Amino acid sequence: VCINGVLYYTAISDSVQMLIFFDFRSEKYSFVKPPPERNLKMEKLINFQGKLASVRSRIFDSEESLSLEILILKDPKKHEWAIRIFNLPPMWKDGAAGKYLDVVGVTATNELVLSPRFPSYLYYYNFVSEDISRVDIQGIGAFEKEPRAHVILNHVEDAKIMELF
Questions:
Q1: DSSP per-residue letters across 123-158
Q2: Dihedral pair phi/psi, residue 24, rounded to 5°
């Protein structure tokens, strides 16, 4: 993920996890150690209100999954992280129980986007208002036999086509 001219990515060397960031302005690399209890291979890096954050890349929705835990990098020089826990509204329990969702990313309006393997719907979790909404996608039923479809945020192939809608 790229935030304010700094590219962040994960790496593993000799079974040691590390977070690497490259500052495009200074053209320098730096390293940050994640907390030992976190497995960055299983997490998605996101831009959380202008700071690097990490969230589990797959979420199993069940009655027990009523909160969302995000690890936020507070100070890269001191290797300081903070955990922020968001309690999900009751709609989450009722609408998503028993399903696996992948974290797609975060929109410019501070919404975490969650998608099933075949996206006939998406969930948008707003960090600011702490509410969640479900958006159903219609018209893709013919493709449901495919094992997986990918959701990509903020992609526009041709802005002129968007003007037609």
A1: EEEETTTTEEEEEE--S-GGGTTSS-----TT--S-
A2: -65, -30
Instruction: Give DSSP secondary structure letters for 27-92.
Output: TEEEEEPPPTT--GGGEEEEEETTEEEEEESEEEESTT--EEEEEEEEETTTTEEEEEEEEPPHHH
Structure tokens at 148: 């997986």
User: What's the residue count for the chain?
Assistant: 165
Report the distance separating Cα 123 and Cα 128, nearest Å. Answer: 15
User: pLDDT tens digits, residue range 136-148?
Assistant: 888 776 666 665 6
Q: Which amino acid is at 8?
A: Y
Q: Do 40 and 17 touch, CB atoms closer than 8 A? A: yes
Q: In the block, which residue shows the tokens 């027990």?
A: 64
User: Rounded CA gap, 28 and 7, in Å?
Assistant: 11
Half-sphere exposure of 61 (CA within 13 A, CB side): 20
pLDDT tens digits, 118-163: 777 888 888 888 888 888 888 776 666 665 666 767 666 665 655 5
Q: What DSSP character marks residue 164?
A: H
Q: What single-letter DSSP state applies at residue 26?
A: T
